[in-house]
């Protein structure tokens, strides 16, 4: 590294560009005001102003050398430069003010580049204020007081205007360079990100295929178990044992249907609840050993639920439908089952189940496993239910939790 390009330990290329700009501008400005200071044509006040500017640039170089950071220097230069140039513009009426106006443009430019939009707008407004004041109050006084320049004065003015214009051009050049660098880095980062996304998508597709295959095989295994149970059921002579086998088959079928729906869904962790319950209820009816038809109406205002919810919910619906078919309906009746699911507060939903049948009271020594299972499944979903029986039929009202909402 050289004096013109000092070393800065920073991975932020924008900060590197700002530091390098502040360093070089401080050096160039210091050399310029030093040359202007030796112009013998200037008055003592002019010389003092340029000398102060020279000291300020030296101060900026020292700060940059020891701190290796540019923000303070940009703030100091913008504020101090605005004050000094505004004072010169308003008070030094005997000089041509073209240089001061260009200095203001230079100060505004470095402020926007070095400090950003908020500081840039603030410094812009301050400089605009002094320019408006000069235009409305001082311009005529300035035009009447201007002293003719000698050859040395003309050369000094030309040098000052040229250098300041070049400084503005250099700031703009540095800005476009950093923008170009940022764009190139963005392209590289975007390319890397696209490659990583493609890799992740490929891995996700492989995992999705594997998970679907797992669900497919689990479903097949459960179907084999169901087939074996059906074969075993046909060998039984006891009607009560056959009913128990049918109930076991239905419960296994509920889980088998879940896995079948999962490998058919785009989202492997969620199941469309309405279509699942429709298929489930159709399967339950087809397996029921009754000689009458039952219509089941399903309405759901919830689109999908996850595995933690659908498994106990499916088993719950299975028990309810099976109980209605076994205990509520008789041949020749208009048999209807209504299932409605609506969202409740926060992560809970309401399940309303009703039928049009007249329930037969179970015998005192009969098994109440189905009702116990309904209670257990409701508790698994952090819910509660109420059973209402009247002349119109039987209704269950559940308040259940959509467990996936908190997972």
Commentary on this structure:
It is a single chain. The protein is an alpha+beta fold. Among the domains are: 13-147, no CATH class; 270-407, Histidine kinase-like ATPase, C-terminal domain (Heat Shock Protein 90, 2-Layer Sandwich). The chain contains 10 helices and 7 strands. The chain has helices at 13-37, 44-67, 71-91, 98-115, 117-145, 151-235, 239-264, 273-287, 307-327, 369-380; strands at residues 270-272, 295-300, 304-306, 336-343, 348-355, 384-390, 393-401. The strands form 2 sheets. It has a 5-stranded mixed β-sheet with strand order 2-4-5-7-6, covered by helices on one side. The chain has a two-stranded antiparallel ribbon with strand order 1-3. A hairpin with a 2-residue loop joins strand 6 and strand 7. Helix 7 (239-264) packs antiparallel against helix 9 (307-327) and helix 9 (307-327) packs antiparallel against helix 10 (369-380). The protein is rod-shaped and about 130 Å long. It starts with 12 loop residues before the first helix and ends in a 6-residue tail after the last strand. The model has no long low-confidence stretch (mean pLDDT 80).
